[in-house]
Design brief:
Number of strands: 12
Radius of gyration: 24 Å
Strand order of the largest sheet: 5-4-3-12-11-10-8-6
Strand content: 5-15%
Structural class: alpha/beta
Order of helices and strands: EEHEHHEHHEHEEHEEHEHHEHEHHHHH
Distance between the termini: 44 Å
Bound molecules: D-xylulose, cobalt (II) ion
Length: 436
């Protein structure tokens, strides 16, 4: 069989003292952390679009990355070769999950019927490759943002004909996700947003988006797809105002349109920072609303205000993210999908391995540090202490709804000035650093 990575053997765990670049220093899949293997905690997934379709193109120039598997002139041959290369990559890297958009794996044809036939052909090969290699689809999705027909949005397009096209694509993408036994399906509102209110009826667009989601839920039930639906928040880019701004915004949308029980969130690190939040904030916001679903593991650049989609390397961030994930019981249907791309000048095929190895090691370290923090109850004990007043007389009366403004005023007049308590932030940061 043809190999696309001939000089690369299966990546092994060698421990932190290994000097071999193509090895894991911290990610040891079978190592038990808090009663579960690292592999089961982290559930790493490779994303198809950046890893196998990324060319390094940017607004200033064309692609720089040339791959053997993408060299065929016939787009369907190219799609097949890319798929074989992808499964060789997954196996050599040692991940169990992958994610894709419909258009990543099979090229569009001249009409939807032909396009769907192409997709079916590739999906049949993918199904066999999944079972031959013990791989699972973490989630599928549709690309309803690249084709110019979607320039004014998909579900939020001013033309119902485009809405219909988007719905047809989503229908098929959910069906192929089901066919591949996908554990989930993601809605990222690619061009669901707007540039100017001079031409936009925001209320009507949001109603339409909700209608599209409702139809998706109905179709899911109709065909018996049992995977989890996710919304992936992002505040801006490509449009100025993306409707799925952040976790809080998505949750409000889901509640308003009575969709809250049908969706969880797929939180992406770089989208969180674009929204002016930390990655951990978005995870925590999702979790406290029962909506922590899956994660797009990447990072932005502190100096740049756009979605740089870099591979995660910051141990502080991976630690805090895993701390929140562990605190809320871990990932169930979801996983850590590397929605991350190589820098434009990282053109070697080995760079793809280095990038993923680095991301996996960064999360493995984050997991271990977070587990230790959790086991030692470092912050939990301090937080419990900080809110101790709420477990006593006054706090309990307020929490259980036994007080009103008159009663609280009476209490305050009788008891005088409250005693302030320090938040001890610097001390806590110092403690955290002793763990990192
Ligand atoms: C875009 C992004 C998407 C989604 C899937 O910023 O993150 O790749 O993850 O459509
Ligand atoms: Co993403």
């Amino acid at each position: 069989m043809k190999t696309y990575f001939p000089n690369i053997e299966k990546i092994k765990y060698e421990g932190k003292d290994s000097k071999k670049p193509l090895s894991f220093k911290f990610y040891n899949p079978d190592e038990i952390v808090m009663g579960k293997t690292m592999a089961d905690h982290l559930r790493f997934a490779v994303c198809y679009w950046h890893t196998f379709k990324g060319t390094g193109s940017d607004p200033f120039g064309p692609g720089t990355i040339v791959r053997d598997f993408a060299s065929a002139s016939d787009p369907m041959v190219q799609a097949e070769e890319t798929l074989y290369a992808a499964f060789e990559f997954f196996t050599k890297l040692g991940v169990k999950f992958w994610c894709f958009h419909d258009r990543d794996i099979a090229p569009e044809a001249d009409n939807l019927t032909e396009t769907n036939a192409r997709l079916d052909k590739i999906v049949a090969i993918a199904k066999k490759l999944q079972s031959d290699n013990g791989m699972q689809l973490l989630w599928g999705t549709t690309n309803a943002f690249s084709n110019p027909r979607f320039m004014n949005g998909a579900g939020t397009n001013p033309s119902p004909e485009v809405f219909a096209y988007a719905a047809s694509q989503i229908k098929k993408a959910i069906e192929v996700t089901k066919e591949l036994g996908g554990l989930g399906y993601v809605f990222w509102g690619g061009r669901e947003g707007y540039e100017t209110l001079l031409n936009t009826n925001m209320g009507r667009e949001l109603d339409h988006l909700a209608m599209l989601m409702k139809m998706a839920v109905d179709h899911k039930n109709k065909i018996g797809f049992t995977g989890q639906f996710y919304i992936e928040p992002k505040p801006k880019e490509p449009t100025k105002h993306q409707y799925d701004f952040d976790a809080g915004n998505c949750l409000a949308f889901l509640r308003k349109y009575d969709l809250i029980n049908d969706f969880k969130l797929n939180i992406e690190a770089n989208h969180a920072t674009l929204a002016g939040h930390t990655f951990q904030h978005e995870l925590e916001m999702s979790a406290i609303n029962g909506a922590l679903g899956s994660i797009d593991a990447n990072r932005g650049d502190e100096m740049l205000g756009w979605d740089t989609d870099q591979f995660p390397t910051n141990i502080y961030d991976t630690t805090m993210a895993m701390y929140t994930v562990l605190k809320h019981g871990g990932l169930t249907t979801g996983g850590l999908n590397f929605d991350a791309k190589l820098r434009r000048a990282s053109t070697d095929i080995t760079d793809l391995f280095h990038a993923h190895i680095g991301g996996m090691d960064a999360f493995a370290r984050g997991l271990k540090i977070a587990a230790k923090l959790q086991e030692d109850g470092v912050f939990e004990n301090i937080i419990t202490q900080r809110y101790a007043g709420w477990d006593k007389d006054l706090g309990q009366k307020i929490e259980t709804g036994k007080m009103d403004f008159d009663a609280l005023e009476k209490f305050t007049i009788e008891n005088g000035e409250p005693i302030v308590q320090s938040g001890h932030q610097e001390m806590l940061e110092n403690i955290l650093n002793t763990y990192i």
